[in-house]
Design goal:
single chain, 69 residues, 4 strands, elongated, binds zinc ion
């Protein structure tokens, strides 16, 4: 198991629990991640799906009217 954060310098957080420097990459299946904090397993596609959701929200924020009082 390689540590995606410390060995490669990717400062990623677990998409399930939000902990940092706990996500490990299975070198035999580089599209599969394991979190040492919550014991969660997720795939590269899971991360892409999560990022796409955030992308939609951020795109909406750019067009949302300001609600300053
Ligand atoms: Zn986790």
């Amino acid at each position: 198991m390689a540590t995606a954060t410390t060995q490669r310098g990717f400062a990623v957080k677990c998409i399930a629990c939000g902990e940092g420097e706990t996500v490990r990459l299975d070198v035999h299946d580089v599209h599969s991640f394991h979190c040492g904090s919550c014991d969660g397993e997720f795939s590269a596609d899971d991360v892409r799906t999560e990022l796409a959701r955030w992308g939609k929200l951020l795109a909406w924020l750019d067009t949302a009217p300001s609600v300053e009082g």
